């Protein structure tokens, strides 16, 4: 990559205040231009189809329309369509299992939104100038605390990846039919995985499932 030219950045977040704060922080750095801004995963994919990009910075959980792409699915699609463009994720995700999955998905970095806009400048500098992955202090502490990515030692229920996918999509508003189509499973299989996950989590109602997902940063 030509170090003499500006790095072109695309950003996605559904909250205008956060989106503008990140854009302003990065635009203040010499050699960095934020040329694309999106409010959803689908918008981000459209932005990326227009021109060449050097860095993608995206929120993981954007509370947009039901038809929008899921956060982890978005990362997977970005890595498949744009394997040479580093992706930095920023999030307030509370669920460590999902956080670990994100860290292992091929992203170049993860930043906790609560740590301030300076973290975005540091992340962009480390990733683009030094070609090093960057994880903010809060994220590093959580990943270090959970190196194996499970809760067995603490006695907390451990959901499978497929169960996690189902409850996250259901809590985000998708029906079992829509989930089955999106994850390419039968409706009965999806219903069983949802039921199993709720039993593991000791959740009695769909409202409990939605509340759990909100509290744990799944939606």
UniProtKB/TrEMBL annotation:
Domain HTH luxR-type: 152-217
Keyword line: DNA-binding, Phosphoprotein
Entry keyword annotation includes Phosphoprotein: yes
Modified residues (4-aspartylphosphate): 59
Residues in Response regulatory domain copies: 8-128
PANTHER family (alphabetical): TRANSCRIPTIONAL REGULATORY PROTEIN RCSB, TWO-COMPONENT RESPONSE REGULATOR
Name this polypeptide is given: Two component transcriptional regulator, LuxR family
Source species: Paraburkholderia caribensis MBA4
């Amino acid at each position: 990559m030509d170090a003499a030219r500006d790095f072109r950045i695309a950003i996605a977040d559904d909250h205008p205040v956060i989106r503008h704060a990140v854009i302003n922080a990065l635009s203040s750095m010499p050699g960095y231009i934020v040329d694309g801004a999106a409010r959803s995963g689908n918008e981000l994919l459209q932005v990326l189809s227009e021109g060449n990009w050097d860095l993608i910075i995206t929120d993981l959980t954007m509370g947009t329309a039901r038809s929008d792409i899921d956060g982890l699915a978005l990362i997977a699609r970005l890595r498949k369509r744009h394997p040479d463009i580093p992706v930095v994720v920023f999030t307030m995700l509370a669920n460590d299992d999902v956080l670990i999955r994100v860290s292992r998905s091929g992203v170049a970095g993860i930043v906790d939104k609560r740590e301030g806009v300076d973290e975005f400048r540091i992340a962009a500098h480390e990733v683009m100038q030094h070609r090093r992955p960057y994880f903010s202090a809060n994220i590093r502490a959580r990943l270090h605390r959970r190196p194996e990515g499970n809760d067995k030692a603490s006695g907390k229920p451990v959901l499978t990846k497929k169960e996690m996918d189902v409850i996250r999509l259901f809590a985000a508003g998708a029906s079992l039919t829509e989930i089955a189509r999106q994850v390419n499973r039968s409706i009965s299989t999806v219903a069983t995985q949802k039921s199993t996950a709720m039993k593991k989590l000791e959740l009695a109602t769909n409202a409990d499932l939605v509340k759990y997902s909100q509290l744990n940063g799944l939606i």
